[in-house]
Fold this protein.
Amino acid sequence: MKDNLEILVQAVEGDRKQVFARYGKKPSKAIGERSIRWILRILGGTTVGITGLIIYVLVSSAVGFFQEVSVMDFLTGTKWLPDGDDKEFGVLPLLSGTLMVAIGAGIVAIPLGLGTAIYLTQYAPNWFREVATPIVEVLGGIPTVVYGYFAVVTVTPILKGIFGDTVEPYNALSASIVVGIMILPMVSSLSVDSLRVVPVSIKSAGYAIGMSRFHVVTKVIVPAAFSGIVASFILAFARAVGETMAVSLAAGSTPSIDWNYFEKIQTMTAYIVSVSFGDVAVGDLEYITRYALGLTLFILTFSINFIATRIVRRFREVYQ
Amino acid sequence: VKSFDASRYRRYQIYGITFQLVCLVANISALFFLFYLLADLLAKGMGGLSLEFLSGKPDLRAEDAGIGPAIVGTLWLMGLTAAFAVPMGMGAAVYLEEYARNTRFVRFIKLNIQNLAGVPSIIYGILGATIFVDTMGLGPSVLAGALTMALLVLPVITIASQEALRAVPDSFRLAGYGIGMTRWQVVRYQVLPVAFPGILTGIILALSRAIGEAAPLLLVGAAGFISFVTQHPMDGYTALPIQIYEWTKRPQEEFITIAGAAIIVLLVVLLLMNALAIYMRLYFRRKLSYLHS
């Protein structure tokens, strides 16, 4: 059966040599079949082209920027002053803004998302799981600009109520909270996926040697799903790093390196939006900065995602 | 051998109950966030909703402003985006699942698609601004916006289509080859009809992601304030999320109200699209139930 299937596939794919050898007969070379195959092959390759194009556009324009500003100044400078007479292009203030929001969002999303995932897979009655899972997913489907609105209109007034006027109208904390809520379903649904494939047998083994339910959950099931859980954290973190609309609405537009969550900050993405949507002339140094920042952002998220897939592949326990 | 330790047993039980409670609280708070945010949105935005709001044009005075051009612009965007991204995404998926052999290059393409889906949307904005707006000279047109959006949703549509194609049982293909069909005939008459509902669901979900996306559009020149309705692909445009962004940025209370109203409209559209996706999945599952019996 397997053998026949292979011959069949070879015949249809036009692997001529092997089919010739077996049947001594020419396979179909109909022009229609071949042109369709080529069209599809080109479409399949398009995605690689897109990646190539992204890298080409970012790198070729960023090179122009780095001829004006040295890479070291860019990576280690602590001041971001793109306009005015004394221009300085140190990425650290923008990078720290980005990391502030991403870490703050992680602090919100990781415990809540993991707790949700553990409850849904280990404890929840069926009816609750069936109701709660799609509702949590809805949080991930809400557009990011809407989260920006929530941060400005709903969350910041609450923070002001709690912490008083030290909270500025635009602040890193409100952005972190809404981005955290936004990535929560990502953490929980990816963790649920990895918790659910832990086989019943090792759970039963835990009970059989007299472990309590608490220990079975925390010492057997969660460790067994650990690679998937960590990957979910990392992927959610990458998403928070690339988040744009919520932070550009809620976090303000003042680059800062102070790590004060009550003050306004600026992230890399928010700066890219402000420079693209403002009145900066095309070709200005200030305009080209977005390619340098875009490249930084691309490298950052790409390597984070790459690490996540590596972790899953390297540490995944394969269960039969 | 230690004897049974009742106090330790009780202590573990307390740990267990506490842990379960903590997890429950985490879950409930996620649900609470959603309901609280939506309730606050309804309280603040309902007042701005009216028929004039849906059809009116943006205005400097919040009371007279509407989202007519934004709705039309969003429709243009989604229509053109689908026209570009759907055939390309489906074609790529058919190639990868039905034609390509498992070579190193094909594995590289698959990994690359996964990675593309994780690239921040604003990077696509930079790409679109450079290639479509500047280099190709399309300017800040709805066509340039749609092409940019198409690049953004392409990996999502491809992945969804791949999954739908993978779910088609091999017996269908073998039956086709068995009666002498060519590869394309098998794809066209055996595989695609069965995979279609899954692909369609994926397309709707991808577009529902695109419809709320604002970041790339800001970079390719969507207008924050236009007083005309988009007429043709080279026209300027605005879209619902852009309008929401513009109004939320303003400090005045009235603009917050109409931003809230626009968000309600956007969320209702999203809800309808998701409901359609779920309905279609259920409908086709029933229709194709012979597959599973």
Q: What stands out?
A: Chain A touches chain B through 90 residues (CB under 8 Å). Strands of chain A lie at 80-81, 88-89.
